[in-house]
Amino acid sequence: MTIFDESYDPRFEREALINFCRDVFVHYGLERDDATLSGRVLVAADARGIPSHGVARLARYVAGLETGAIVADAVPEVMHETPISIALDARGAMGVPVSELAMKSVLDKARTGGAGFATVRDSNHFGIAAWYAMQALEHDMIGIAMTNTAALGVPTDGTRCMFGTNPIAFAAPADKEHAFVLDMATTAVPRGKIEVYARRGKPLPEGWAADARGRHASDAPSLLDSMNRYAGGGLHPLGGAGTMFGGHKGYGLAVMVDILCGALAGHAFGQHVRDNAEAAGRVGHFFAAFRIDMFRPAAEFRRDMDQLLNDLRNCPPAEDRERVYYAGLKEIEAEEAAARDGVIIEEAVAAKLNDIGTRVGVALPPAIGAK
User: Fold this and answer.
1) Does residue 188 lie in a domain region?
2) Rounded distance between C-alpha atoms, residue 122 and residue 285, angstroms
3) Core vs surface per residue 193-209: b (16+ CB within 10 A) or e
4) Residue 224 pLDDT more than 50?
5) Strand 115-123 relative to strand 85-89: parallel, antiparallel, unpaired?
6) Which of 5-19, 110-124, 215-229, 292-306 has the lowest mean pLDDT?
7) What per-residue confidence (pLDDT) applies to 8?
8) Region of residue 44 (left: phi > 0; alpha: psi -120 to 50; beta: else)
9) The domain containing residue 244 runs over which residues?
10) Which of 52, 139, 157, 164 is the most buried if burial means most Cβ atoms within 10 Å?
11) Cα 271 to Cα 151: distance, rounded to the nearest angstrom
12) What is the 3-state secondary structure (H, E, C) of the chain?
């Protein structure tokens, strides 16, 4: 779902934008395949209507590569492995390639053992969590992916950032219906949405964030500055402030992700994961997949998923709404539109990409127009 009118934002051909990101990453020392994959994951976020995790993140990736927060030639190390699990130390590597490695290992283990699990420590931002969970779909498996992030969220009734946006992705296949793909932050919104509002000069909606005294934060630039300095204030948990609308449940989910991606992975967690002005902090990940046929024939499961998802789609909408969606449906429709019309990139983000390209000698592809 888009936040603002995008009529005046440029559109780019998807592969051209991926190739631009690839060439920037290659300039900073990534192997070509890793660079292509990293670009593909970034652009996938924009194509799926999630600009908070799209090419707008390229600047922070570049900063990480320049400062050494991201180690371009790092070789991940296997710390421990069993027939159904693997624990990896990324050793500061780019988050996308090491996460792809972990998820592929999970799928291999699930094919033979029924289920697979992976932890990754000392890694970096890995893009949209759904990218990894969705890889289970073609194998008649259910996929799960999580990551902790720098501390950006305030606990219920708190005023300081003590946990990250800590997203969770869950993907389950259907037959004729599109797959169910849940990809959500465990805070009310991810930091990227605050950045979008800051770029647009728009006040933040009630319930998204708290200032240093625990009151509603409406000014996006001021909030981002305070969060970057860890001076107080931050994002509310999923459900918002207090307990009336379940904010304490989002708080619990965020801590659960820190347990799996931090404590279990042997990585930092909670307030001990921090960004700085130059680059994002190191993070940990958790991945899992399991075969549906451990429980029942996969074809029967997919048939019932069709019924479930069709029922949801055909729920009568509220009087001021046109239709009812289920998780993943808006994103796949956005991808279809992007394939047809081009990937929407905010004008300010496109200008930043052009600056990066100019600096490293990589030309940003021409826009293909606005809608």
Assistant:
1) yes
2) 9
3) bbbbbbbeeeebeebbb
4) yes
5) parallel
6) 5-19
7) 65
8) alpha
9) 11-298+327-360
10) 164
11) 5
12) CCCCCCCCCCEECHHHHHHHHHHHHHHCCCCHHHHHHHHHHHHHHHHCCCHHHCHHHHHHHHHHHHHCCCCCCCCCEEEEEECCEEEEECCCCCHHHHHHHHHHHHHHHHHHHCEEEEEEEEECCCCCCHHHHHHHHHHCEEEEEEECCCCCECCCCCCCCCECCCCEEEEECCCCCCCEEEEECCECCCHHHHHHHHHHCCCCCCCCEECCCCCECCCHHHHHHHHHCCCCCEECECCCCCCCCCHHHHHHHHHHHHHHHHHCCCCCCHHHCCCCCCCCCCEEEEEEEEEHHHCCCHHHHHHHHHHHHHHHHCCCCCCCCCCCCCCCHHHHHHHHHHHHHCEECCHHHHHHHHHHHHHHCCCCCCCCCCC
- Closest to 94 in 3D by CA, of 67, 113, 75: 75
Confirm whether 180 is domain-assigned. Answer: yes
Of 33-42, 189-198, 286-295, the one with minimum mean pLDDT is 189-198
Handedness of CA 344, 349, 350, 353 (dihedral sign): negative
| Contact in structure between 233 and 212 (CB atoms under 8 Å) | yes
Q: Would residue 309 count as lying in a domain? A: no
Q: Which tokens in the block code for residue 303? A: 């048939």
Domain at 248, CATH number: 3.30.1370.60
User: Would residue 207 count as lying in a domain?
Assistant: yes
